Amino acid sequence: MATNADNTQTHFRTCNLCEAMCGLEIKHQDEKILSIKGDKNDPFSKGYICPKATALQDLYEDPDRLRAPIERTADGWKELSWPDALDKVADGITKLQKKHGVNALGIYSGNPNVHNMGAMLTARHLFKSLKSRSRFSATSIDQLPHHIVCMHLFGHMLRIPVPDINRTQHMVIIGANPLASNGSIMSVANVRQKIKDIKARDGKVVVIDPRRTETADLADEHHFIRPGSDILLLLAMLNEIYTQGFIKESQASLLADELDQIKSLAQGYTPDNVASTIGIKSEDIKRLVKEYFEAPSAVLYGRMGVSVQEFGLLSQYLIMLINLVTGRIDVEGGLMFPNPAMDVVNSTGPGYLAKRKTRVRGLPDFNGDFPVVAMSEEMLTPGEGQIKAFINIAGNPVLSTPNGKLLDSALEGLEFMVSIDYYLNETSKHANIILPPVSPLERDHYDVTFHGFAVHNTAKYSPALFKTPKGQKGDWQITLELAKRLDKKASFSTKLNRFLTNLLGPKFLLNEGLKRSQYEGLSLKALKKNPHGIDLGPLTTMLPGAIKHKDKKIHLNVDFYKADLERVQKIFNLDAPKMDGDILLIGRRHVRSNNSWLHNSQRLVKGKSRCTLMLHPELAQQQAIKDGDQVKVTSRVGSIEIVAEVTDELMPGVVSIPHGWGHGRKGIRQGIAQKHAGVSVNDLTDESLIDTLSGNAAVNGVPVVLELVPTSSQNAASQTTKKQTEAVSLT
Length: 731
Ligand SMILES: Nc1nc2c(c(=O)[nH]1)N[C@H]1C(S)=C(S)[C@@H](COP(=O)(O)OP(=O)(O)OC[C@H]3O[C@@H](n4cnc5c(=O)[nH]c(N)nc54)[C@H](O)[C@@H]3O)O[C@H]1N2
Ligand SMILES: Nc1nc2c(c(=O)[nH]1)N[C@H]1C(S)=C(S)[C@@H](COP(=O)(O)OP(=O)(O)OC[C@H]3O[C@@H](n4cnc5c(=O)[nH]c(N)nc54)[C@H](O)[C@@H]3O)O[C@H]1N2
Ligand code: SF4
Ligand SMILES: [Mo]
Description:
This protein is an alpha/beta fold. It has a domain at 583-716: Barwin-like endoglucanases. Helix content is 32%, strand content 18%. It contains 26 helices and 32 strands. The strands form 9 sheets. It has an 8-stranded mixed beta sheet, covered by helices on one side. It has a 6-stranded mixed barrel with strand order 25-29-26-28-27-32. Strand 15 (353-357) and strand 16 form a beta hairpin. The longest helix is centred in the N-terminal third of the chain and has 19 residues, at 82-100. The radius of gyration is 26 Å and the shape is globular. The site of one ligand MGD has 38 residues, from helix 5 and helix 12.
C-alpha cells in the first residue's frame, strides 16, 4: 500500500465478485474510498474491470448491510452481541439435533463461499461440527456435470480443463455468455478482447444459444438451438466426426478404454436426423464439424446453458469426448489444465457419486451434497429424517433454486434457522438468527478456487483493505467459533488446527498450501512482495501427470453414460421428429447484476428494468403481446407477472427471464433492491425438472404458457363492452 502527501493511499487487490479475478487499484483516504479502477500492472487482468467492481464500495458503505448479529423476536429484529448470538445458535442446533437427530439439520452453501478465501479454507470445520448429512449447495444448480465428468475421466472432480482462449484459433461456445458473465469455469478477464483477438489472428468464434447474446453478436457465427436439445447436436457432431474420419488418435495412448467405444454412442444420431428437432440445419452441423476439425487449434466449450438442463451431464460428457477424439485436450489452443500455485486437487478427495440417495425422491448425492431440487420436499415430507432446522451459509435459495415459493413456505415451517449472511433478504428473513460476516474489502483474499480454472497461471494475494471493525467477524471466524461450540469433543489435532487458524488467520493455511507448490520460492511472503500478482506463465501440457487415476489413464466410463441414451430416445423420438408447440423458458445474465445479491447498489440497478420477459416478435404476435405489455407467465409450479420485451434476439418459441430478482417480498431490508424488485423466475422453474443422471436442476427449457394481463384501461374497456353486450341482450 502506497501513501501520498495528501494522505491518499493506493491499495491493490483482486475483485472477488465473479470468476474473472480482475486486479483493482483502489484509492482511499483512510476509510473513505475515492476510486476503484483496473490495475494495469495485474499480470492476469491487465487493467480490465467491469461495472460491478465499484459495487465493492457500495457493499462496503451500504447502510442496509448488517454489522451485528440480529435475532427475530415477537417485537421484530433485535441486535445481539456476538457471544450471545453464537451461543444461541449452537444451543439451538444442539437442542434440535438432540430432539430429531443430527440429520434433521439441513445445510445449504451458496455461491459466494467459493469467492471467499476464509470460507474455503475453514468450511470443513463447520461441516464437521454440524454433523448432519443433509447437505445441499448451489453446485447442483450449476457446474455439477463438470465435476462428475472430470472425476470419471481424469480422476478428480476439480481436475477440470479450461479453454486456452489466449491461443486458440477456433472456439465453439455452447450455452455460455461470457460477455455478460465474464466467463465461468474459464476464469478470464476481458473476454471481449480475447474474442476480438481470436478474430484478429484469423481465427473463428461460433456461438450456439437460443438467444443471440452479446457474445453471439461479437462472434463470427451464431446458431439458435432449441433449449434442452444440445445433446442431439453433440451426438450428431460426434457421429459426423466418425463418418468423416475426423479422429485424431494422438491421445489414444492416454486412454484406459478403447477409443472405438465412443463411436457406438452416437450411432443413429446423424445431422440429418436431429436437424429439425434442434433447429440447426444439417449442412450447418456438418460444416461446423469440418471447420472445427480443420482448424489448426480448436476448443469446444459449454457452460450454464448446457449444464443446467435435462441432459446436463450427458452433454458435458459429449463436449469432453468431442474435444478428446479430435485431439483437442491438453494441447495449445484446446482444453488445457491450469497449474495453480495452490492446487486444491492435492488436498481434497476425488469426489463420488450416489453413495447415498435422498429420502423422498431417491436422488443421488455428489461428494456428500444432495441436489437442491430436493430441499423443499425434505423439509415438507413428514417422517424419519425430515429436515426441521436449516443453516444457510452465503446463499439465497429462495431466489436461486427451482420453485422458490415452495422453499419459502418450507422455511416458514422450520423449528430453527440460521443464516450466515450480511443481508436480511428473501431467504435470511426466515432465520431466527442472522450472523453477518464483514464485507469483501475487510478481509484477505486469495482465489483458492479460480486460479485453478484460469486461462493463464498467476498467483495473487490481497490483504484486507480495511481492518476488521472492532467486534465484527469474518466468515472464517464465525465458522471456527461455531465449530468450537458445537464440536467440543473434537480430536486434539482438529482442535490444534482450529486454534492455530483462529490465531494466525486462514492465510496461515494458504501459506502452507503455497509452500507445497510445484513453483519454486512461492510463499505468502513472496506474494505480499508482489501486490499486483505473480505471472506463472501460460497454460502448459499437464498430461498424464495431472490425471489422478492411479494408472495415469483417462477413464471413459462409457457404459454409465450410454445408459442415459435411453432417456434421450424417450424424450426426443427421432423416428417421428416434431417440434412441439411448448414455449420454453431460459435464463439470462447481465453484466451489471450478480445472481441475487448485488441489487442494493444504485449504480448497478439504475436505468431501465432488466427483469423483463424477452420474446421473439413472431411469438409476441401469436400471443397478441406488445413490447411493454404486462404478461402472466405460468409453469407447472406457478405464475409470475412481468413486462414483455419484444426482440428478435430470442429464438421464436423461446422466452427468457433473468434470475435473482423478486425483492418485493415483505420483511426484507435492502432499500434499493426493493425499489427495483423485479420478479423471481425461480417461482416458475420446476423442482421436478432435473437431469436425472446427475440430480442437477434443469432451469433451462421449462415449458410455460403466456397470457396478456389486461391493463386497467383495457380492463375498463372490456368491462364496458361486457356491460354493453348485457344491455343489448336485455332489450
Ligand atoms: N433460474 C436460474 N436460477 C439460477 C441460475 C440461473 O442461471 N437460472 N444460476 C444458478 C447459479 S449458477 C448459482 S451459482 C446460484 C447462486 O445461488 P445462491 O448462492 O443461493 O445465491 P446468491 O444469489 O449467490 O446469494 C448469495 C447470498 O450470499 C450472501 N453473501 C454474499 N457474499 C457473502 C459473503 O462473503 N459471506 C456470506 N456469508 N454471505 C455472502 C448474499 O447476501 C446472498 O444472500 O443460483 C442459481 N440459480
Ligand atoms: N454479470 C454476472 N456475471 C456472473 C453471474 C451473474 O449473475 N452476473 N453469475 C456467475 C455465476 S454464479 C456463473 S455460474 C456464471 C455463468 O456463466 P455463463 O455460463 O456464461 O452463464 P450465462 O450468462 O447464464 O449463459 C448461459 C447461456 O446459455 C444460454 N442457454 C440457455 N438455455 C440453453 C440451452 O438449452 N442450450 C444452449 N446451447 N444454450 C442455452 C442462455 O441463453 C445464455 O446465453 O456467471 C458468473 N458471472
Ligand atoms: S469482471 Fe467485474 S465482477 Fe468480475 S472480477 Fe472483474 S471487475 Fe469483478
Ligand atoms: Mo454459478
